[in-house]
From TrEMBL:
<dbReference type="InterPro" id="IPR039373">
    <property type="entry name" value="Peptidase_M28B"/>
</dbReference>
<dbReference type="GO" id="GO:0016787">
    <property type="term" value="F:hydrolase activity"/>
</dbReference>
<dbReference type="InterPro" id="IPR036757">
    <property type="entry name" value="TFR-like_dimer_dom_sf"/>
</dbReference>
<dbReference type="Pfam" id="PF04253">
    <property type="entry name" value="TFR_dimer"/>
</dbReference>
<protein>
    <submittedName>
        <fullName>Folate hydrolase</fullName>
    </submittedName>
</protein>
<keyword id="KW-0378">Hydrolase</keyword>
<feature type="domain" description="Transferrin receptor-like dimerisation">
    <location>
        <begin position="202"/>
        <end position="315"/>
    </location>
</feature>
<dbReference type="InterPro" id="IPR007365">
    <property type="entry name" value="TFR-like_dimer_dom"/>
</dbReference>
């Protein structure tokens, strides 16, 4: 449900730049800033480190979160591989009434968007996005932000695997040193955890190579679009042909076998977590295997995701070549 406050966007990162451009052109009805600028300033305020603030200030586009579960988009994105976005305002009206008996017209008009101005702003954002998509000669997919996001996922996965190793090494050492026995109350003793085998090193090389290929193809496509925008030459293919590839780009991120134990979820980058309800897990087959200490499955999933990304990179390069004069 829509509310009063900040503009929130979640979705496919091939549309991250597009959603940022839409947000730049929508005015917040109360502050009169663009909703993009207000979101950017909020992110600076909420950043925990100097490095995070620096990235927000330097990066051309605001990062958007990935989509988890939601009946409005799950079937489209996570089963069929249709690039999707979710827009909404909120954060300043308290909330807490969703799907309750208090979620009614009286509450909304007295405690939420009482003047319906954020409903109007949401209609402007959604309408602007739809019209720009419908009227675009070349669909506004962009792969630089997408490749950058996938690279951050890779870094997170490597850090997660390293943390698992470090945590188990430390716990084993504390068991050997007698830390748990010494700190257990003799009158209410606790059983120390068992010694665990230190996790093996995972082979991230296929994923690293795939991310490199994705970054190269994204740069290639960006250059081709720049040349088209500058009208530097005739196209080797019609926009319609390129658009068909762009539409298929999200499909390439799916796998017919689906996720381990969840074959309905085909997308290899975005899915609700197995145990997290609505909340998203990115690169779920790899991330959840690491979390569950299923190391063989993690290595297998790395290879699967790498293959999907290699296919995506090949499609992006193909689109770039079709745009080349």
């Amino acid at each position: 449900s829509n509310g009063r406050g900040y503009f929130n966007v979640e979705g496919s990162h091939t549309l991250e730049k597009f959603s940022n451009d839409v947000a730049r052109d929508i005015t917040d009805p109360e502050t009169k800033l663009s909703v993009w600028k207000r979101d950017r300033l909020r992110e600076i305020s909420n950043a925990r480190t100097a490095e995070q603030r620096e990235e927000i200030r330097k990066r051309a586009d605001l990062r958007i979160p990935a989509l988890g579960s939601g009946s409005d988009y799950t079937a489209f994105l996570q089963h069929d591989g249709v690039a999707s976005l979710n827009f909404g305002f909120g954060g300043e009206d308290g909330g807490g009434i969703y799907h309750s008996i208090y979620d009614d017209f009286y509450w909304y008009t007295h405690f939420s968007d009482t003047d319906f101005v954020y409903g109007r702003a949401l209609a402007q954002a959604g309408g602007t996005a739809i019209m720009r998509l419908a009227d675009a000669d070349l669909l506004p997919f962009e792969f630089g932000d997408f490749a950058d996001t996938v690279e951050t996922y890779l870094k997170e996965l490597k850090a997660l695997a390293q943390k698992s190793q470090d945590d188990i090494r430390e716990r084993n050492r504390e068991i050997e040193e007698g830390v748990f026995q010494a700190t257990s109350d003799p009158k209410r003793p606790l059983v120390p955890p068992p010694v665990e085998a230190v996790p093996p090193h995972l082979n991230f090389a296929p994923l690293e190579n795939a991310v490199d290929a994705l970054k190269r193809s994204a740069a290639e496509y960006h250059q081709a679009v720049e040349q088209v925008n500058a009208k530097s030459g005739a196209l080797s293919a019609s926009f319609a042909e390129v658009n068909q590839l762009l539409i298929a780009s999200e499909r390439k991120l799916t796998n017919t076998a689906g996720l381990p134990n969840r074959p309905w979820f085909k997308h290899q980058l975005y899915a609700p977590g197995f145990y997290t309800g609505y909340a998203v897990k990115t690169v779920p087959a790899v991330r959840e295997a690491i979390e569950l200490k299923q190391w063989k499955q993690a290595d297998e999933a790395i290879a699967v995701v790498a293959g999907v990304l290699e296919q995506e990179a090949a499609l992006i390069s193909s689109a770039a070549r079709k745009l080349a004069p």
